[in-house]
Amino acid sequence: MGSINVQREIEQLFKKKVEKDSNIHNAYLLVHSEKLDADIRLATGNDAIHPEQPYYIASVSKLFTAVLFGQLVEQGRCSYDDPISRYIQADVLENLHIYKGKDYTNEIKIKHLLNHTSGLHDFLEDKPLHGKSMIEQILENPEKEWTPIEVLNWAKEHMNSHFPPEKGFHYSDTGYHLLGLILEHITNMPYHEQLKRHIFDPLGMVHSHYIRMEPLEKNPFDIAKLSVRHTDITHYQSMSFVFAGGGIVSTTSDLFKFLKALVHHQLLKKETMDQMKSDPGKFTLGIDYGYGVMNIKTVPIFMPAKLNSWGNAGSTGSFMFYHPATEAYLIGTFNHFGYGSKGMRFMLQLIDKLQKAHKKQEHP
Q1: Predicted confidence band at 218 (pLDDT cuts at 50, 70, 90)?
Q2: Region 24-39: what's the mean pLDDT?
Q3: pLDDT given for residue 2 in this prediction
Q4: CATH code of 242's domain
Q5: Nearest to 312 by CA among 295, 300, 299, 328
Q6: Rounded mean pLDDT of 48-69?
Q7: Which of 191, 226, 245 is the last residue of a domain?
Q8: Burial 39-52 (b: 16+ CB within 10 A, else e)
Q9: Which of 292, 351, 305 is nearest to 62 (CA)?
Q10: 212 SS3 class
């Protein structure tokens, strides 16, 4: 009876969130906990078609990039402490990280990019020194193709760095573009092919793919419409600006396969996952950012222990987290740019409901 009640409560909460927000056109949710005998798979919104509809997972993609690095570290092909100058050509690195007149580029290590402590700018969220923002350019030039190098060059011209490496935390999509280039250099293989060969294929993630690539099996449902400022940008050529920090299209069920594989150490050894969590930057109060892993930790009053969980989230309201106390997988999206904090808050509300159901189960 408890699992039936919590499933009903979660479904009602999710639908209410979407119905009262006119910006959300489609939203998707998967909550699974064998401990609570709960399995919820939902799609709602005027444009939502089916729970198995693929959508842009946004910065949840960063955890995939981090896993590819973890695999290379386990194979001895690189180290988290390696300087990025070992793998990226000089012209790309030129004037990359200038702070107060000093060039810190050669001090940046792979780990600094993974946990956002490099001090580099964020080409997506930072305000440019002059001209239009990246988002404005995406909207105004929908036919423009962006290569990773073009994005990096634009960022160098229009952005300032924030601090020397390891002297703070600043979320940086610029850093994850660099990580994608490093992966390609080490493996001599395109980023999208690495995803397919080392993650999608082995896990049977048949409906997952890199942007504008084909999945292993054709999904009967179109990619969910992604909105920015009430504009549908789903099929814009300018969406090519995303790369190793946000370029994956997937479904909640496929992401469940991925997260479950991480929890059970099928993609990376436990020691590697522990290392990824143990050297974090401080994302915000109660949330650390390890090597691609957001780790929600106890902060008295603000972030109680019952919320402790790990995973990743994106600016579209996408999230993918595991909650060890209830052995719950929480995956979903509101699929609207600028909804990152709303997605996280909703995910924490879900955990709260699961915890209450768990308590009732233990003390009926």
Answers
A1: confident
A2: 95
A3: 52
A4: 3.40.710.10
A5: 295
A6: 96
A7: 191
A8: ebbbbbbebbeebb
A9: 292
A10: coil
Are 172 and 240 within one domain?
A: no
| Distance separating alpha carbons of residues 292 and 277, to the nearest angstrom | 8
Mean pLDDT within 133-153? 95
Helix, coil or strand: residue 163: coil
Query: What's the farthest any 2 CA atoms get from each other in the chain?
Result: 65
Tokens of 364: 């009926």
Query: Which of 191, 225, 249 is the C-terminal boundary of a domain?
Result: 191
What are the pLDDT digits (tens) for 314-336?
A: 999 999 999 999 999 999 999 99
Within 10 angstroms of residue 166's Cβ, the number of other Cβ atoms is 16
Tally of structural domains, the chain: 2
* Segments forming the whole domain that contains residue 33: 2-60+206-362
φ, ψ dihedrals at 205, nearest 5°:
-85, 75
320: in domain:
yes
Q: Which residue has the tokens 């972030």?
A: 303
Give the torsion through C-alpha atoms of 95, 101, 106, 110, to 10 deg: -80
pLDDT band at residue 313, thresholds of 50, 70 and 90? very high
> Which of 178, 170, 132 is closest to 153 using CA atoms?
178
Cα 231 to Cα 251: distance, rounded to the nearest angstrom: 22
Q: How far is CA 7 from CA 34, 292, 328, 345, in A?
A: 13, 30, 13, 18
Give the model's pLDDT for residue 1: 40
Note whether 174 and 266 are within 8 A (CB). Answer: no
The CA distance from 268 to 70, in Å, is: 7
Q: Mean pLDDT throughout 287-310? A: 90
3-state secondary structure of 44: strand
Q: Do the bridges between strand 102-103 and strand 98-99 make them parallel or antiparallel, or are there none, so unpaired?
A: antiparallel
Stretch 93-101: mean pLDDT:
96
CA atoms within 13 A on the CB side of 48: 23
